[in-house]
């Protein structure tokens, strides 16, 4: 933990990734209860962000990139009857009737309904959100996004009601322009190629990139630029059906937005090619490894064997870390010890992301972390100490939890809010006898 390998980059989806009261709910009548999630969206100057489309939907069982075309279409197809939630003039929103389990919170482009009703050709960049989500604050914890993603995975227990959530966003760096023919006729409803070259103002950096945005009925388009940390001179060029038009060199500062850019082709209007309908193909994820169950207990209490090391693992519910240890001892097991990246990945696939107690504690006298089963620490997977913006001194953090942030570990103090949110643990034992099913002859 003292030398974390995980570098954080503050960008959107919606990106941050959060979990509140995450866990696998027990099978009970309470599971049928729905939840609510409400709060306010503001910009970096505390101004409300109005009419921003936000949503919460269950995470699909299909492999999608966050905010990809397939993901957005899956959302609208499976939840087309759900009203689109827009923030009001004060930036407030309220989402009700949310089922329990693993969910996505996110934001859409402002014109999402029009985009998804279009039956013609589309690309992922057509669905870029105009804002970048920087953080999400719930009570005393602030979660920061680590990649540009307008969806945040989290989990809800049945009947959870979360209020006064504060979402902070900022406008994304972009250009807005228009593409015309010589006689000022717009290049309407057409996809074209845009390229740009940049040189930093201090002359130390340069590069190029591009994309394929689409114009609207009046020839206008929006193209989002990757955020840079220093001013740069940009030169843009557009290409359409063999025609090329270029801009002058333009100085853009970090976060700056440029409107009114016009590209004019030296040609009479050309009839566009008809846009083709696109068939969306989604692939099912690879089947999970076959698990060997040691008993016919309830799903949340079953032992599952890792075929690589032949150890058995089980998820247990607990109010405290001490309670988790007591359950482990009763089962002749210990809090999970993670030996390498492969074991870490297997645990994530089997048990999902959430706050789990793991078998690590910090021994102050020796100045190092120690495993619950006494084995030497050979693998580490830490988040930075300040990831969740807690003020507790690092020296007060004596225990570790596995988090919803890609399964990364986080050191916690007994006073940490995360301790109160950690209501599950993973326990492990070796030398197990596997109950085999009788094979049919």
Structure, described:
- By secondary structure, the protein is mostly beta strands.
- The protein contains five helices and 25 strands.
- The protein has helices at residues 69-78, 112-117, 321-330, 341-351, 417-421; strands spanning 35-42, 53-58, 85-86, 92-98, 101-107, 131-138, 141-144, 151-156, 161-171, 174-180, 193-200, 206-211, 220-224, 232-240, 243-246, 250-252, 257-264, 304-305, 312-317, 334-335, 356-363, 368-371, 399-402, 409-412, 424-429.
- The strands form five sheets. Strands 18, 19, 20, 21, 22, 23, 24 and 25 form an eight-stranded mixed β-sheet that branches. It has a five-stranded mixed β-sheet with strand order 4-1-9-6-7, with no helix packed on it.
- The radius of gyration is 26 Å and the shape is elongated.
């Amino acid at each position: 933990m003292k030398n974390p390998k995980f570098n954080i980059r503050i960008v959107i989806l919606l990106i941050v990734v959060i979990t509140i009261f995450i866990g696998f709910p027990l099978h009970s009548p309470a599971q049928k209860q729905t939840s609510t999630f409400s709060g306010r969206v503001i910009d970096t100057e505390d101004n409300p962000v109005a009419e921003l489309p936000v949503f919460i939907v269950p995470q699909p069982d299909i492999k999608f990139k966050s905010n990809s075309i397939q993901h957005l279409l899956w959302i609208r197809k499976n939840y087309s009857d759900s009203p689109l939630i827009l923030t009001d003039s004060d930036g407030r929103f309220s989402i009700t009737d949310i089922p329990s389990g693993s969910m996505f919170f996110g934001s859409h482009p402002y014109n999402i309904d029009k985009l998804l009703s279009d039956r013609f050709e589309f690309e992922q960049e057509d669905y870029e959100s105009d804002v970048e989500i920087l953080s999400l604050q719930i009570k005393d914890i602030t979660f920061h996004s680590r990649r540009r993603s307008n969806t945040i995975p989290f989990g809800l227990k049945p009947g959870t009601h979360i209020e006064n959530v504060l979402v902070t966003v900022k406008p994304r760096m972009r250009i807005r322009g228009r593409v015309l023919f010589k006689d000022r006729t717009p290049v309407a409803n057409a996809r074209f190629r845009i390229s740009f070259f940049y040189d930093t103002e201090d002359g130390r950096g340069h590069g190029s990139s591009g994309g394929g945005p689409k114009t609207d009925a009046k020839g206008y388009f929006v193209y989002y630029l990757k955020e840079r940390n220093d001013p740069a001179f940009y030169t843009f060029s557009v290409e359409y059906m063999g025609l090329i038009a270029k801009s002058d060199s333009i100085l853009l500062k970090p976060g700056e937005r440029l409107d009114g850019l016009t590209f004019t082709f030296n040609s009479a209007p050309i009839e566009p090619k008809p846009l083709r309908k696109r068939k969306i193909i989604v692939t099912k994820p690879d089947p999970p490894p076959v698990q060997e169950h040691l008993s016919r207990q309830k799903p949340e209490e079953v032992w599952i064997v890792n075929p690589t090391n032949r150890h058995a693992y089980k998820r247990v519910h607990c109010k405290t870390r001490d309670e988790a240890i007591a359950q482990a001892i009763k089962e002749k097991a210990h809090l999970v010890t993670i030996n390498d990246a492969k074991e870490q990945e297997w645990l994530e696939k089997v048990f999902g992301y959430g706050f789990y107690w793991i078998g690590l504690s910090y021994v102050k006298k020796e100045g190092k972390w120690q495993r619950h089963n006494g084995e030497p620490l050979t693998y580490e997977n830490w988040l930075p100490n300040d990831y969740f913006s807690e003020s507790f001194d690092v020296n007060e953090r004596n225990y570790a939890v596995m988090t919803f942030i890609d399964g990364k570990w986080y050191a916690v103090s007994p006073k940490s809010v995360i301790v109160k949110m950690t209501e599950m643990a993973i326990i492990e034992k070796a030398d197990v006898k596997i109950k085999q099913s009788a094979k049919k002859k």
